[in-house]
Amino acid sequence: MVETSDIRVVRCGGSKVNLTPPIISSDSRFVLCTSGDLVKVYSTRTEEWLHSLQGHTNQVTGITLNPANHLQVYSCSVDGTVKLWDFIDGILIKVQLVEVHETVEIFLSSGLCVSACPECFQLVSVHLPKSAEQEVEAKEMSAVSSHISKNPSCTAFGRGGEYIAFARHLQLNVYFFRKQKTYSFSLKATDKKGAKNAFTCIACHPTDDCIATGHEDGKIRLWRNFIHKKEYTYSTQHWHHNAVNTLCFTPEGTHLLSGGIESVLVQWQYGADNRKEFLPRLGGSILHISASSDGQLFCTSHSDNKITVIESSFKVCGVIQGLVKDAVLTDLMIDPRSKALVLNGKPGHLQFYSLLRDKHLYNLDIVQQEYIYEAGLDQFEVVKAAFDIKGSWLATVEERGKKSSDLEFFLKLWAFDERTQSFVLNTTITAAHTDRIISMCFSSSEETTMLVTAAEDSQFKAWCQGADADTQQDQNFWSCDFVGSYHKLNPTNCSFSADSSLLAVSFQEVITIWSPDTWEMLTTLCQPPGVIRDLCFGRLSCSKYLLGTTTKNLLCCWNLLTCELEWSTSVDVSKLQPDPFSENVAAFSYQSKHTDLFVFKPSEPRPLFTNKNVCSEKVHRAVFVPREEPLNSCDESTQWLNRSQLYFLTQNMDLLTFSTATEEDRMLSSSKQLVIDDSVAVTPFYLLLGKHRQQQQKLNTQSHPVSDKPQQTQGSVTIKELLHTPAHVLPAASVLCSMFVNSFLISNTGVQQDPLSWLT
Amino acid sequence: MGEFKVHRVRFFDYMPSGIRALAFNRDIERIAVARMDGSVEVFHCSDRFFQEKIIPGREQCGIEGLSWVGERLFSAGLNGGITEYDLTNQKVKYTVDAYGGPIWTIAGNQQGTHLAVGCEDGTVKLFEVNEDKIQFERNLDRQKSRIISLSWHPSGSKIAAGMMDMIQIFNVETGHSVHRLLADRGVGTSRSKECVVWSVVYLSDGTIISGDSVGMVKLWDDQTGTLIKSHNVTKCDVLALSVSQNEDSLVAGTSEGTVVQFQFISMVLGKDDKEWVRTRTFKNHTHDIRAVAEITTAVVSGGMDAQLVVRPLLDKVEVRSAASALRKIHFPHRRLVSCARKSGLMLFQYPGHLELWRLGESEGKGEDDIHLFVKRNPEKLLHLKVKGEDHIRCSAVSPCGEWIVYSTASSLRLYRLHCDNNNVSITKVLQISTELSANQLCFSSDSSHLFSASTQSSVHLVSLSQSGCKFVGTLKPKSGERTIGIRESSKIIPASEDGKWLASANSDHEVHIYNLQTRKAHCTVPVYSSAVTAMGIHPTTNCLFMMYADQQMCEYSIEQKQYTDWSRMVQRKGLHRFWMERDTPCLNVMFNPQHPSHVILHDTYMLCIIDQSLPLPDDKTQFYNQLTLKSLPEEQRKSHSHAFKVCKTFKDILCVELMSDQSLVVVERPLEDVASQLPAPIKQKKFAT
């Protein structure tokens, strides 16, 4: 870490928004959720990402509104700090350093913060000191329980913060702060009817002394009278067929909301337990529910990294979709047209996600079948996908029957339709191979597109468009052009060289080089021992090199001109990722429980950049994402990040990336200027005015061809400042007056402006 | 540990009758159960729910309600009469016609002065309870529809009456209706159907709780006559309600077979504003629950599936023990089968008839758990219908198989059985009317005498011979100080093998031993706190072996008039935990003449042989150790074996008898067979079906 002090692994873009319950601001205008190291603020009405609260240096694990001031929000993070923010302006107000190890979760009530620590998951009540300084250290702490559940939903504050209820496995505990006494109640693990009684979540009624608990078998229990050791009582309701993930009382306590894997939001009427309402088909299983303080809006977060905003009339009014990373089977890919990240999304879909704007673009339905949300069903999944170099063709493989022996799979080819700006199914090949497709790649030449698939039936096939004579004129379908094999060995990888003049197909331990024009095997390369795991050609100036990694921890580089091994090194590479915009190749190696990254050029065996201990899990997927505007760093160790950014996916499905110091500085400076626009909601009125303003801006740019950005007139800046500064910090009106009048004076720019331009 | 050839009898089609009403008497801790066939049973709640008394029913006598007034038990039924029971002699005392058509409900006030009955003609009739009889007092205001349910205010000044579509509150003083509470009908198609208020409960704070056919439990205020709250409990009917004595818990029985508990709980802890909140749901029944009773420590429920379920409320139980476990009572705690040990005949007692069967025969000798080939199938010899309307109270067949005797509430009949070749005929030998009607019947082992347990702990002797029968005399207990007052009637009378001794136990827990040669009372066994469920006199040692309802056992030497050493050792060392935790009483005590030290016992779930020569197990030893013993080598077995050998091969046992040819007869009545003969329950949508 010492050598790479200016390059840091960050969670930036595509992070989980469903890690903690989202919170709705008290005026129901904003939804706040944690996303990696940030807290993101979204608009409830337009679902737009407005801005983010930036400042934590590690995963943010909990947010909660400040009970004393509803315009402020507390956040806590694994970095061990609790921060207080003004979330409307995005200003950090206060930092509290909590000494206990790492704060994992935060629950707040009446100035008292309870945090849990990861090692043993202790519940600690932390007294937040009242001091004016920006950075204070919270020292006053008292342990509530030394052993609580890892799941933060298993802890909840009771009526008015008088007590806290927390459950672990089969035991429910209620701790009364005033009496400093804990009452515990336990359930039997199972009974004759096969109940699974372990607690999964807790919610407390806001006005009554009633604790709702969810259980593994889908039961919901309402506990009452819990200050008695024996005379406590509970009632049981059962609708969910699987574990209840979350429970939430509405602020008035008239209803209880529950959700689970069924992805049905259930609303129970408190007191009349038989009456319930359902909102089905919400997508992934429900992980968290939260309600706004006026009870008008509910928010559910789902396992497919999604937040749904629901009106109290049980109508979905907004969806905030994050990057879905549930079961990534395909590689990480970049759509050459939109530069969006493409991977498995909703079941049976490919998702297109813009990492730059951290926004989900759209889903492409590949399987085109209804997905049934039930455990243990064998359904079609997209397992492979590949784009051609221009982004006009997409090849996908979907398969089902991984567990059973009868494997079914389809190879589909999708053409990009300029008119609809989306991919349209062109060809479906039902029996492309007799066994599972292992690897697939498009040729990289611009003129002819060719797809090569390698499968476990020890064949590889080349597919071309319109080669079949039977096909009709107007539609060009794909058909098989060539079938190749090598000594009945199973192919493991295939790859085209940068100019598509060569095709490398690895058969177990042997790499064969083919000419795609004549389908002639040119040569074989063999470097025993070990099966070839990854294969790639060098780019640009290094295109004469072919890189391969083997299962026996060998990274080899062949020179294709001499057909000889140029160099090889012993390293266990789990993923080899070439950068399409430079000669650089990134290799992730997994050794002794952590992953290291090496970036090197195939021409020289010395790495450009090494980063030890990137993460503690294995990395199997990585991608270089092109930057919108290249950095111009001259430092050797950061140079490789100039044109593109390396994202990688760990086994925990964390999408991580590298950021440089200069980049962070730039982002920080831009965020400081961030002032929330008063047009949070896109109303028709805004559209009308906005259009007008855009026209005006166009006018401006025409009149100022030199400046690339439309310059605001000084007047509108002044007015804006006047209107946006809170009234209590405004200087006296006499001071403002001259400034205001000054702003009406037209500066001498040489071009007469329409005086109305800044009034709008 | 003794090998037996077992006749596994499963052709006794005994059907328990559905439970219609329950009444709990808190003072004497007894619960009375009325069944659909008109029989009334009394269970002792603190003595492990032992079935103390059974009053057999009659044809065409449907009981609709039960009510205790003090220690007196009253019932009312659709035949329009109110019946009081003579619990000491286990029979109907008298029946008074209410002249209001069928009676749907009966309720006594807490003061014990009045009974109210709700009649088909829409009247609530008040009866005054006198010393020995009840007396009609007056009618309350007559209503248009029948009165389904009644509840007195604890002060006795008001009555709530549930009817079709409404509840009326009557002032008892004036007899006028104070309020009329309208119950809503169901929505949708059931709108046209009347809402039947099946059950009402009047609390002392003026809250009226009703359960109706719409499936609602509703809470009403009697001052304003308004609905306070309603709970939708089920889609079907709420048939029964019961409130605990301190009015903090209410149970509702539904026709889905669930019991729903409501509790009176403060919503904010430490504050006094309490509300009725639905809490637990118990599902132990498959069919309609017709009656529930909240008895402070447990919820007792009974219904169409004929089982009495005692569900303990663990928050009210002080110490958790076997006595406070979930209990399901399926079969009567007495024998319905008697066997002629010498001739292989079995007599099955049904409510309205008797069946005599001959056991089948098998060939071959098998190893452990081998089914033998049946050579001759069992054969039904006789179907004897009872004379009159009364149901059979008890019956017996003599060991030689020549005599059959049965008794109803009104008479005792003795028949002689002639069996030549395949021709079976009977002749009536004796018919004795009321005074001699027996609670229990028993033959001497040589079939020369019939013993009939009768009222006041007396036992009548009838000598039997080829020529006929003769009433010989009556055995009465020694008239000591304790004979003051009415004696309970005798129940269990085993006679010794040699015909010298006779022991009788009554429901006062007394056991008397008589010398049959002198026909005098010999002695009395010290009274134990629990009821005797079974006893037997050992054929060689003449010791009386007794089993009690709390699973204790005693052996009493008749000759020495004291407990035997073995019995004292059992008392000193205590019985194994597993033995004490069994929840059904032992129903028979038998002795194996080939192994004098063996005592054979059985309850509903197991068959047990106690070897008195082996050491007793303590709580640390493995109780069910047969399998372990089997795996051990021969020499180690001795050190690991203990006195109790339990066989759980048979289930739902009604009777086990050791025949004189060393074969066992095990009469089983599988609960699945009982369940399959019940009417279909309410159809419910179950998840994933």
TrEMBL record, chain A:
Gene Ontology terms: biological process: positive regulation of rRNA processing; positive regulation of transcription by RNA polymerase I; rRNA processing
WD repeats: 53-95, 192-223, 237-269, 430-463
SMART domains per record: WD40 (SM00320)
Keyword Transcription part of the UniProt annotation: yes
InterPro entries listed in its UniProt record: Beta-prop_WDR75_2nd, Quinoprotein_ADH-like_sf, WD40/YVTN_repeat-like_dom_sf, WD40_repeat_dom_sf, WD40_rpt, WDR75
Listed GO MF terms: RNA binding
Classification via PROSITE patterns: WD_REPEATS_2, WD_REPEATS_REGION
Keyword Transcription in record: yes
Keywords tagged on the record: Nucleus, Repeat, Ribosome biogenesis, rRNA processing, Transcription, WD repeat
Positions of the WD repeat-containing protein 75 second beta-propeller domain: 332-653
GO CC list: small-subunit processome
Primary location recorded for the protein, binned into one broad class: nucleus
Gene3D superfamilies listed in its UniProt record: YVTN repeat-like/Quinoprotein amine dehydrogenase
Compartments it resides in: Nucleus, Nucleolus
PANTHER family: WD REPEAT-CONTAINING PROTEIN 75
Name of the protein described by the UniProt record: WD repeat domain 75
Organism: Cyprinus carpio carpio
From TrEMBL, chain B:
Gene3D superfamilies: YVTN repeat-like/Quinoprotein amine dehydrogenase
Molecular function per GO: RNA binding
Domain of life from the UniProt record: Eukaryota
GO cellular component: a single term: t-UTP complex
InterPro entries associated with the record: UTP4, WD40/YVTN_repeat-like_dom_sf, WD40_repeat_dom_sf, WD40_rpt
Gene Ontology BP annotations: maturation of SSU-rRNA from tricistronic rRNA transcript (SSU-rRNA, 5.8S rRNA, LSU-rRNA)
Pfam families: WD40
SMART domains in alphabetical order: WD40
Identification of the protein by name: UTP4 small subunit processome component
